[in-house]
Design a protein that fits this description.
Blueprint: H1 7-19, H2 22-29, H3 33-47, E1 52-55, E2 58-61, H4 63-83, E3 92-98, H5 100-117, E4 121-127, H6 131-134, E5 141-146, E6 153-167, H7 169-175, H8 184-188, E7 192-195, H9 205-211, E8 224-226, H10 229-237, E9 242-246, H11 251-256, E10 260-261, E11 267-278, H12 285-296
Parallel strand pairs: 3-4, 3-5, 7-8, 7-9
Antiparallel strand pairs: 1-2, 5-11, 6-9, 6-10, 6-11
Helix pairs in contact: 1-2, 1-3, 1-4, 2-3
Keywords: DNA-binding, Transcription, Transcription regulation
Pfam families: HTH_1 (PF00126), LysR_substrate (PF03466)
Domain HTH lysR-type: 5-62
């Protein structure tokens, strides 16, 4: 029977199982939804077994489909591992996706360290603030802004999101300020540096001030607003004013004294930065080593 079933049929079946959506499987494979449906139907006819059932708009695997998926996934993973020596001049190529702020403030240095330790692995970094691109299963690993749950990724916490105003020592000295003693009203009157909220769950100064125990009496107007969070941090480092610091992302700047916490209000948002590994496929050896390296470098 196997000699009558092309390998492509199993690749299509694997993608349909991982996405549980024929359209998304087609996009990954660069074929139409109708082509995916035809290939699945053909595979079912050749095997003489129903592989999927429909529940409203949702797909589900039959018991036969579940058993086949496990075997097909194992087969494709074995083929992938077998082909690794022929790629990238003998170097394994892995991909990781992260937001601009995570890439700039936290991940970049750790990838350089990993590169020095793992010369046989090439890492491709996708930097994007698009949630769909970050969570794409075309990536081997991802770093997601999340509460810790995702249908396609097993997530491990790297950094909790704890937000506190921060400024450079030069700015505080120029204004003659004692950072620790500043009240919310005094902070609101200073040179605030804000950033755009690309994600509805992100928190900028407006949301932060509403969550602290004693919000300022006068609503603050930021002096500067940047398109990205990392630009706001850079402006604070250069002494332009005060911005919200995500402690987990700027731990090195706080430890070195390049930035100083302002006031005594901290807000823990319930979100954090999570390292994700795929739920429905195994990591390659290089991706597994990078996963462990990033967890060890917390």
């Amino acid at each position: 029977m196997l000699d009558r079933i092309p390998l492509e049929a199993f690749r299509v079946f694997d993608a349909a199982c991982r996405f549980m959506n024929f359209s998304r499987a087609g996009r990954e494979l660069h074929i139409t939804q109708a082509a995916v449906s035809r290939r699945i139907q053909g595979l079912e006819d050749q095997l003489g077994a129903k592989l999927f059932t429909r529940r409203g708009r949702n797909l589900a695997l039959t018991p036969e489909g579940e058993r086949l998926f496990q075997r097909v996934r194992a087969m494709l993973e074995y083929l992938e591992e077998s082909l690794e020596p022929f790629r990238g001049g003998g170097r394994e190529i892995i991909s990781i996706a992260a937001s601009g702020s995570v890439s700039h403030l936290w991940l970049g240095k750790r990838l350089k360290d990993f590169d020095n330790e793992s010369p046989s692995v090439s890492v491709r970094l996708l930097t994007t603030d698009s949630p769909s691109e970050l969570a794409s299963e075309a990536n081997d690993l991802v770093i997601l802004y999340s509460t810790g749950e995702h249908p396609r990724w097993n997530l491990t916490l790297l950094r909790k999101e704890i937000l506190v105003p921060v400024a450079s020592p030069a700015y505080l000295a120029r204004r003659g300020l004692d950072a620790a003693s500043l009240t919310a009203d005094e902070v609101a009157d200073l040179d605030l540096i804000d950033y755009e909220r690309f994600n509805a769950n992100w928190i900028s100064f407006r949301q932060w001030f509403t969550r602290i125990p004693h919000p300022p009496k006068r609503w603050p107007n930021p002096r500067l607003s940047f398109s990205t969070y990392s630009l706001a941090i850079d402006a604070a480092l250069q002494g332009e004013g005060i911005t919200l610091g995500s402690i987990g992302l700027i731990a090195e700047q706080l430890a070195s004294g390049a930035l100083i916490e302002v006031g005594s209000n901290r807000i823990e948002t319930g979100y954090g930065y999570y390292l994700g590994m795929p739920r429905y496929r195994s990591l390659s050896p290089g991706a597994a080593r990078l996963h462990q390296h990033l967890l060890a470098g917390q």
